[in-house]
Amino acid sequence: MVLSIPKVKNFALPNQGKNHLWEKMSWRILTQGGGRKSPYLTKIKVLYSSTGIYFLIKCEDKKINSTFRNDFQPLYQEDVVEIFLQPNEKFPIYIEYEISPKGHELPLLIINNYGKFSGWMPWNYSARKKIKKFVSISESNWLVEIFMPFIFLKGFKNIPPEKGNHWKANINRIDYDKFPRAKWALFPEVKGKFHSFENFGIFKFN
User: Fold this and answer.
1) What global pTM score does this model have?
2) In this structure, are residues 80 and 62 in contact, taking their beta carbons and an 8 Å threshold?
3) What is the pLDDT of residues 92-109, one digit of tens each?
4) For residues 99 and 88, what is the distance between their CA atoms, to the nearest angstrom?
């Protein structure tokens, strides 16, 4: 499966999805699979500019499960959104970026030997390299806004992406209202196994 990513000029966050540039992409609904059935919808938009990639993720939710108070904690143990980016599909190395409803983050570089994988945290993660992220919570949903600068991805091939470039990627969500967990994926071929990178979909940069 392929998601076409429109190119836009740089814009500031947060704007809660109200910047007119978000209209360049229609909402894409994530598919449930690999867990408990849930009535909640999860939908996303993705854009890119000359300096980075933007994500807008809306998660319907009436019961927030999020107790971690700091970044770099195991956020996947509670409600979370996870973004996977593999700019060079020739190597089993990719970025996993997790964000909680409280706005805490876990950015990782993953080396995955077909199921045997390890995560590494970023070094010198500040200033221009730092990911900008904002989360707002209402009675019915939590909304995530992210700007990931391409300098954060320095070292990968296809950075910054040019028109026509492809990355393997996925966007996932886990909800812990009840057990078993509910899971969603933009590219559901992963079947709830979010690190099965061979089943990631494609981001095509327009």
Assistant:
1) 0.96
2) no
3) 999 999 999 999 999 999
4) 23
